[in-house]
Amino acid sequence: MTNSWFVNRIFEPGYLGLDLFFVLSGFLISSLLLRDLADRSAGRGKRTTVLRYFYARRALRLLPALYVMLALDWVFVLISGDVSLHTQWRTTYSAVFYIANWATVWNLPATNPDLGHLWSLAVEEQFYIVWPLVILGLTVLVKNRSVKLLAIITAIVIIAARRIDLYQGGANWLFVYIRTDTRIDSMLVGAAFAIIYRYFSIRTAVTSLLASAGLIGIIYYKFASPPSDLFEIGFTRTAVFAGLGVLGAASGGWAFNRVLQWRPLVSLGKYSYGLYLYHHVIFLGIGRHMSQYPQSFRLLLGYGASALCTFLSWRFVESKCLRLKTRFESSHANTG
């Protein structure tokens, strides 16, 4: 029984990968914005240009592949009749305008479950829209670096308190899980570590030690904490541990960096967006329409179809759009 529990805790679908992504995203976006804004303030152009370039690059990276996937999902719905056209329309425009998480909260039954995973993309994009303006405001209005960091930490505490209050007050766990005002703290943790990375000098040996402690903390609480803990302090705590790892990796010298630089892992990061877009739709569709086949066959078919769609998305959509990003680069060669 103990071994089964241990294995289930390793492979169960869960929050960990998503939260790590939220933290990394907040760190990278904040680091790039802080760097580019500093360049502009040094006399190399207008700060507002940084924002225009940022939004253009994000649109090129995310929108074309999303729209192609949504169009293909429409074809599948028209052929299969799995959901009503009203539900499909509602789900599609909520995805296009990046309000999928709130559309689910407002009316869960009127949402196509195949596209339910797009809630996290909605949270990310809502952050991308607002956060550059906040960073610009902090850059212009707040000169003290410690005050900038304190402002972000205060926002993290407020959001965590908000989540705890909602969950303990009996709010639906799914809604607590996908609401922007209860999940954005993970991205803000990444932003806080970006402030630390850019403005505060910490010895590499110290950041490596903290990164190792963060990794141990993630592993420990993955197995030691009850699921209900996540909806209270768990998400924020995991984000802090992940932020320590990101800080250690960015500072260099952390032994675990060799694992992060492993070629298959780097390739997974390269193709991850297409995989994210297609895998959920494919596996749910296979589960509904091919339930008479053995599970092993359905899994192999799902993995194969997901890999194929991911490759095609990268080859014919994402990579071509990424070539256009050079028109919106800063003075640096590549802003990612």
Query: By helix and strand content, what is the structural category?
Result: mainly alpha
Number of strands: 0
Return Rg in Å.
Answer: 21 Å
How much of the sequence lies in strands comes to under 5%
User: How many structural domains are formed by the residues?
Assistant: 1
Net shape = globular
Uncertain spans: 1-13, 332-336
Helices and strands, in order, run as: HHHHHHHHHHHHHHH
Question: Helical residue percent?
Answer: over 70%
Count of DSSP H/I helices: 15
- What is the CA-CA span between the terminal residues? 45 Å
Biggest sheet character:
none
> What's the rounded overall pLDDT mean?
88
Task: Give a written overview of the molecule.
The protein starts with a helix and ends in a 14-residue tail after the last helix. It has 15 helices and no strands. With about 325 residues, it is an all-alpha fold. The protein has one domain (about 15-330). α3 (about 45-80) packs parallel to α14 (about 265-290), α7 packs antiparallel against α10 and α11 packs antiparallel against α12. Residues about 1-15 and about 330-335 have low confidence and may be disordered.
Summarize the entry for a quick read.
This protein is mainly alpha-helical. It has one domain. The chain has helices at residues 2-11, 16-44, 47-80, 85-96, 100-106, 119-141, 145-168, 173-178, 180-183, 185-199, 204-224, 227-251, 257-260, 263-289, 295-322.
Topology at a glance:
Layout: H1 2-11, H2 16-44, H3 47-80, H4 85-96, H5 100-106, H6 119-141, H7 145-168, H8 173-178, H9 180-183, H10 185-199, H11 204-224, H12 227-251, H13 257-260, H14 263-289, H15 295-322
Helix pairs in contact: 2-3, 2-6, 2-10, 2-12, 3-4, 3-6, 3-14, 3-15, 4-5, 5-6, 7-10, 7-12, 10-12, 11-12, 14-15
